[in-house]
């Protein structure tokens, strides 16, 4: 019975692993194909089943005129994602702290309503916001700029930070803040010196979500830029011509996920050490 | 209901076969008789949780065997041991009503529904929970929740023992005695073997007929509360049981008694044993038994009064015997000498310890 | 809760920045929904409520709305069940725990719009690997994207692949924070794995479950890029969800005014629905002490 | 060195009038061809310090040549040229949002020519010097028409697109298979002249391995996925039934009343045939986008395909398994044609064919651009007579013949090694469309996106069996009326009149 | 320096936490706030610290209203019942924290840390993180952090309640010596345990349901509880109570025991009253000839330290008897108890006011208070 249960457990794990890995393995093998390799049906093993080619990978680094240049968008994506995440974390964490520690009242509005207001920002489908955002950035002269995207992403990411951090702060005893104040720290100093160093797990989770959602956003990066500031998903999608180039899209999907896989390792480490346990409640 | 027998049980969290000093629980043997009320008492980290887990089956001991009614259960899992346990924090099934909480262990064992109802009624009556049977268990107070936890053990007829792991931690101090009484009542009424684990001497001594005092992985003494109090077998027990703790004073052998510093304490009955004992000697006497007067006399030791703590109903008098501190507990109303005093240590309440172990006056 | 004057220093920067960023778009959208802005007439004329009356009679929108509910609810439910199961499997010590945990997290790190292209190639009925496997097993090929029901299933599969990790992460972290005693108590009471799960694990995981479900529902409702790349709403209108429909009306056909009206309605309905769902979930799952 | 000698020799031979031209062979062209925007002419210009912004399609189709020539242009003139590539489905909004909000985002746009109805207000007319250039004079009338709204040329022709039939020559010319077909149907196997024949043949060759590669083959690969391209495939299928050569005054609408004609029997018949055709499409064929169609036919999976050039070009790629095994032919037509004037089906002994001059890639310069001179120079350079032949040779560029001098079989046989018969069929098919007097153009009116999107949605519903053909198209017609009403009948009519004028050969 | 609360009230979420508090705290004095759970002890301490603001009334320090002075600008320390330390800092950094905030020079900080850690015996732990320490050690660190500041106001909110029994026993005398020679600060210590209050001495403030019931010297209050509630709160086990009726020269206790109306009870007005007696004054043996005797049934014998509390029941009487030493009685067994009428308290049955208290026995606090 126990053996059966165990084997079943590993069987399920392996099946799901296969399911999770399938797109990546498929992308890996496809990335070495050419149109001829693709049209000859589902094949998996290079040389044996199809003639491998590096075309799919080369296209990404060839630069204008011959393919796309993936390096600049990569760096753009990094800059925009990290800046927006950082600012969102900063503002969102502060706001979450404010919501967790102080009572707010304005007419019928209470803390919970403000928290919901933050979270509700994510309900709006991006399509709707595209034109107003476009106009707004136009007025600010921030169209087609990294700053403009950062601004928009702040609105997208801050709600996530608030969502994660309010709960996290609620689990940190208030007495800790009070002790710091009694020890002579003003509220901001309390936050900076005492609370922040103790919310690493929460920040890790919130930061993870920021980076994941920021890095993977396509729509705003797409609508709000022209030629100057391309982000990675937009650059990759610009390969998606009427003939879908399976090979280069496959290669690029693998490239795009690399930095975040590193993130997955970091998260797992936190999980295993039990540090994230308190961060998500 | 069962008789629980521990044979040379010891546990080491590291690899088996390590040195004995590394054992979290030093090997020992003991029997808990069926239907008794027992307690495991010791400061945190003394090994009592390991002990408890060995009985409940969460930990399999590195050595030794655990027998329930003679049946070797050492290798059995928790669920197979027919143990019930009440935890420090109330564990209830919060989606269920009180009735369904109590019925849960029976339902898990596919007991017939009418039988379940009967037993639940019975236990609920015992625990004064009848009126709240239909309520969701989560709405009850902490003490009622602890009763439910206990009740889940009581409804089962097959239970070998009920383990209580610091069950009163979350109970309001003013309510504690009621729950203590309930526990005692149940033990008396049902004759269930119950093992109560706590770091609080009051809890242990109030509840149990026999208390095992543990320290650093070792069982220091097993005895009735009165024995522990009046006749601690180890200086640790003397210190740990009773408040204020027993006075423990280093001493040396002397003719017909012992010497504390350069003052002689006549202890004719104990002198012989002390003379032959190996290891450092200590004299132990509880503050309650220290007799104090303002006049010198035979066998009285001259001391200075350092401080008097007035605790309302009695005074704790801190005495200075050539630099050694001795506490004496004196009821209010008894006269207190000023500055200088003389104390007597009655032999029947005085113990001599060698390397911490009490010397038996008989030997 | 403290009530210091300094509290504004914390909340206001974030709140004001958010308001500054979001308020204009929000009000603008509401205003646009009362205009006839479209491909030939850009600008904010006054069109009254005609966009809304048109919407009322727009069967396609309401169908898309229903479809959205179906797709979002079913995929989120699946994500929850699968994420929970997987979290339970890798919760306690198992071999290669790290490997599984990292692997299971990866899909959520990928860009949906790109991964869906890969998925489309996987679902490709004659050139993709999926049917190839199925045929190798001797089973009939599945018309993944070309019948209404399978297309919806394909869509859900992609959503499940992408977002189960999110649930997995939240629920695993939640599981890791649970106390041990309730599980020991259940073992002592003689409860098997199933009873333990429903009477101990689930109730303990309720609060985190609700948070995770709500957030996922919000995100899943915006499903658009996946639909766009995978099926473009087809076959027929079988996979046309509300947000994709708004996209079609808004940016494909450039009926900005109408799309704004749809969006405002969508937003209002979503907020109402989510509030109700949150309340219901809370009632079912969290049983307050 | 040898290459250099040969090049020099070639130049000397072919352009005897030129005096020792500069060598531009490093740009991959055979030779510079003198003209308004020849390499030499552009080289002479100095745009340094200026930036040109271009939006174009994703790489490679049209996106790659855009970027390639942008790079060359930059090198030659010193201008900074920025190109952004966008998938087709997002191109419209990406261009339209800046237009509508008054943001000057791009100088040059590459896009689908049918959007002229929406974009025209924002486009700069092509200046006369370009219109009168030698290269422009060679552009076939169809593509001049496509680039023109009313009397004004506002799009710059850089590509030729059309729908035509592609078939597997190795099947239709295979005696064995011909016999099998005849045995089964009693008819000769030949290139289908009507959609009914197309269906019959496709059905016969569906679901079995007729090329002996061990994989099943199928009848027809078509663009069916409900996206921005599908409606074109549908119009191709409808044109023969609904475009009566003698009935003037509108194909999509009755120009006089602006009543939609999409639910007329001709259209319904076309849709019914389309629905039926799903039976002999490959697995998943009813969700094929253009890319899938290209891979399917281009990969040798199906017997037939129609729509744009790409599938044909893919099939003719150097390493293709079916290189030189494909042929081109005009789209099938119909013996029965709906006459909406009489309300009857007219019978034609020779099948009625109505070539659909479907929209394709075009380019334009934004009216708000501050770099119009440079922008037009770029487009002119893009399509100069040295670049176009170069681009035509690279299949993935998606640049197809649009000048009369491209219709030379020798070009395809010599440059690309095509079989003479294949090249011949290709060139003849393409040029033949230019000679037709029964052409169908796109609905080049404002809001074309709405019309086509609603058409695609309706067709898609019928294809998926959610509605019958008649119901679906009735729904589309109702929707179209509403759109006309919303946009304004006169506005639509004015625009549509231009299309009808082209169709009715009034120009 | 004196801290004065005038008519202070505190409400939160429409719930009264404190009402009409009038107290004066003097520099160099030690105050014990005694009260049951939820009596308002924590609320009072929080008001004093400045963490909370009163909803009514005034708090002045040397005549200056300090309600508006933010907590971080005050010189206040607080020790919570939970062990609150900075988890991200090691013990040394924890203790140094308030000093660094105050901008003290490094060598001064070192000196003070050395002093306080030596005092509290945590010198060995300086490099450890709070999470690695036992509860007792954590609380010592928290205490060190509070002491090191030399604050004007030191607040201790049930600092021992979450510690093991023996640790509490160990720490109490330490507290006593720590606070015994205080001259510069106001120290306020809250507890639920009368024993702790008695041991620590000083001034007492007895709270119940958000109101101050009695203030004054600890021992004075112990012997003369202002009212019945104080008598309950200030005794562990709570003072045993019974209704009585004064008629003529007799006092009839609830279920029929009759006492002469004499001695300190002679002045009781006729009519109903409440009679109280400490568990300590109930004996199992006869100690005097005029002892009253009562037969009862044992409900539970509880061990408390070196004493046994016997809960007894008889008709209306539910009393607790304190007996020295550890003894056990079977549940339900019969028992006879005696008490000396001279040890009875009498309270008004109308408002609970003390009517008569027994004479104070010889007090041994002379040395302590001398």
Give the tags.
heteropentamer, C: mainly alpha, MetI-like fold, 2 domains, 72% helix, E: 370 residues, alpha+beta, Rossmann fold, disordered C terminus
Corresponding CATH architecture of the largest domain in chain A? Orthogonal Bundle
Major β-sheet profile of chain A = none
Number of domains of chain A: 2
Task: Give the uncertain stretches of chain E in residue-range form.
Answer: 362-370
Number of strands of chain A: 0
Outline the low-pLDDT stretches of chain A: none
Q: What is the name of the CATH topology of the largest domain in chain E?
A: Rossmann fold
Radius of gyration of chain A: 23 Å
User: Averaging pLDDT over every residue of chain A, what do you get?
Assistant: 85
Alpha-beta classification of chain A: mainly alpha
Helix content percent band of chain E: 10-25%
Total strand count of chain E, please?
21
CATH 2nd-level architecture of the largest domain in chain E: 3-Layer(aba) Sandwich
Which CATH class of the largest domain in chain E applies here? Answer: Alpha Beta
Mean pLDDT metric of chain E: 87
Query: Could you please say which CATH topology of the largest domain in chain A applies here?
Result: MetI-like fold
Task: State the distance separating the first and last CA atoms of chain E.
Answer: 24 Å
Tell me about this structure.
The complex is a heteropentamer of chains A (281), B (363), C (289), D (507) and E (370). Chain A folds into two domains: 2-61, no CATH class; 71-238, MetI-like fold (Orthogonal Bundle), CATH 1.10.3720. Chain A is mainly alpha-helical. The radius of gyration of chain A is 23 Å and the shape is globular. Helix content of chain A is 69%, strand content 0%. Chain B is built from nine helices and 21 strands. In chain B, strands 6-7-8-3-9-10 form a six-stranded mixed beta sheet, sandwiched between helices. In chain B, strands 13-12-11-14-20-21 form a six-stranded antiparallel beta sheet. A five-stranded antiparallel beta sheet of chain B has the order 15-19-16-17-18, with no helix packed on it. Chain C is mainly alpha-helical and 289 residues long. Helices cover 72% and strands 0% of the residues of chain C. Chain C has helices spanning 7-32, 50-56, 59-91, 97-105, 112-123, 129-136, 148-176, 181-189, 193-221, 225-230, 242-252, 256-285. Chain C is globular. By secondary structure, chain E is an alpha+beta fold. Chain E folds into two domains: 2-227, Rossmann fold (3-Layer(aba) Sandwich); 237-358, Nucleic acid-binding proteins (OB fold (Dihydrolipoamide Acetyltransferase, E2P)). The radius of gyration of chain E is 23 Å and the shape is globular. Classes of the chains: A mainly alpha (281), B alpha+beta (363), C mainly alpha (289), D alpha/beta (507), E alpha+beta (370). At the A-C interface, α1, α4, α5, α6 and α7 of A face α1, α3, α4, α5 and α6 of C.
